[in-house]
Amino acid sequence: MCDKLDIQLNEIPDWNCCGASIGYAEGGELPRLAVNARNLALAEQHLPGQDMVSGCPACWLASRETADRLNASGNLMAETNEALKEAGLNLKGSVKPRHMVEVLVEDIGFADMKQAVVKPLQGLKIAGYVGCQTNRPFGIAGESFENPQYLDRMIEAVGAEPVTGYDQKVTCCGGALAFSEPEKAQQQIRSIVESAYDHGAEMIATPCQLCQANVEIYQSEINKKQGTRFACQWCITRQLMSVAYGGSAKQAGLDGHVIQPKRLQDIGAVESRLFALTYMDGRAL
Questions:
Q1: For residues 50 and 194, what is the distance between their CA atoms, to the nearest angstrom?
Q2: I need a surface site. Which of 17, 214, 227, 255 has the fewest CB within 10 A?
Q3: Model confidence pLDDT, tens digit, residues 114-148
Q4: What angle do CA 145, 188, 263 make, to 5 degrees?
């Protein structure tokens, strides 16, 4: 996807985990902020002038919160830098943490996303599940918190049809409650899947890997407990774009799903020979 859209990604040297849920539950405020500030400081040091982009909503939330809070509080910044000093780092606060969706929507734009398509996903009806973490508290510039439209527009850009009226698009999948409160999480998951089926979706697309994993993995558990027959296919938004941009099913990571996304795999299985003929002279026909 990034190759086709001319986005260059540069990995932060020696980056570390954001702390995710455990950072809020047990880690304490300053350690949680310092863990994320370390990544920001490494980006400042090794990749100056570049935004720090994550494809994971949890990582984005953690780093965005850290940057916002430290830049707003001289005391917190000083305390965090005292901790970072032990690692030979000092955070100035110049790095902007962003989610990949922000880059796609705000920097690339829907028209250019559509322009890069060589295998339109025509005939594929998709429920766009935004979830909660890419929507609150920060969200995408100019979008509604209750009914954001950017994911539906991204689905349209790759030639697929977004389902309208999907009433679960911004609800929580349960997240880590899948482990600690499975009954509550599975009720959330059931609602997400049932609404997609009710609105005629063939699959669900989401920008969040945790949502995709939760809902895909626990459908079989819900089937056992509640006598349902759920087998709803899921994918990450970037997988849709990868296939639409000419990538194979393997390049899009479609071979690693618990519930195989068959329709998308079939489109991705159209090998690149046709597109090699189309593009062998460097021009699109």
A1: 41
A2: 227
A3: 999 999 999 999 999 999 988 888 888 888 888 99
A4: 85
Residues 213, 184 contacting (CB under 8 angstroms):
no
Strand partners, 52: 97
Q: Say which amino acid occupies 232.
A: C
Tell me if the bond preceding 137 is cis, omega within 30° of 0.
yes
Number of residues that this document lists for the chain: 285
pLDDT score of 59? 93
Tell me the average pLDDT of the chain.
91
What is the C-alpha separation between 144 and 50, in angstroms, rounded?
A: 28
158 vs 149: CA distance, rounded Å: 15
CA Rg value for the chain: 20
Query: Whole-model pTM?
Result: 0.89
C-alpha–C-alpha distance, residues 143 and 86, integer Å: 41
Residue type, 233: Q
Nearest Cα to 63, choosing from 29, 30, 14, 20? 20
Q: Tokens 């089937």 — which residue?
A: 223
Instruction: Return left, alpha or beta for 227; rule: phi > 0 is left, psi -120 to 50 is alpha, else beta.
Output: left
